[in-house]
Amino acid sequence: MLARAGVTDAYINTHHHADPGRAFVALRPHGLRFVEGFEPTLLGSAGTLRNAQSFVADEEQFYIIYADNFAEMDLLRLRTFHRKCGFPPLVVAAYRTDQPERCGIFELDEWGKVIDFEEKPNRPKTTIANSGIHVASPELFTYVPDSSPADIGFHVLPQLTGKMYAYVTDEYIQDIGTPETYAAVCARQMKSK
Length: 193
Known about the structure:
The chain is an alpha+beta fold. The chain has a domain at 60-192: Spore Coat Polysaccharide Biosynthesis Protein SpsA, Chain A. It has 5 helices and 10 strands, in the order E-H-E-H-E-E-H-E-E-E-E-H-E-E-H. It has helices at 18-26, 44-51, 75-84, 152-156, 179-192; strands spanning 9-14, 33-38, 62-65, 69-72, 90-96, 104-108, 114-119, 128-136, 165-168, 172-175. The strands form 3 sheets. Strands 3, 5, 6, 7, 8 and 9 form a 6-stranded mixed beta sheet that branches. Strands 1-2 form a two-stranded parallel ribbon. It is globular and about 45 Å long.
């Protein structure tokens, strides 16, 4: 997806299973060049983002993609939506889920602006979920805390209510954070071959 979107360089956080991750990126899959951000102690998703700030310093737009999701989507559409919204600090790719209590959940206005966000709510107000796929502008760093560990869902997104937009898509997005959801994606991929 990154290569199809014109990305040539990617920053990757390594911590858990760092050696297999290094072996994979050394193969330069799809021609991508990787810069490793090894974290002996996890900094949290917002801490990783803060460490990558110099990597994206000259970029007008950049992607942030969580590793515990599988997606088949057109990232160029997400980037175009970000541009059409006037380069807000963040645009999140969002999807409808049948398990909203396991996700970050958005409420949107009629233009897609996020008017409310709650991470893993006990009583979700909607089923529009954070995919963990985002496009951002450098302004985002003004909302990233200096302390670690810090999490994008708990510490950054709540500050962006009223400032970020959601790109709601019906493209295939699946959390692969559990053995069951990972197995389901693997089975789906095998069927498509």
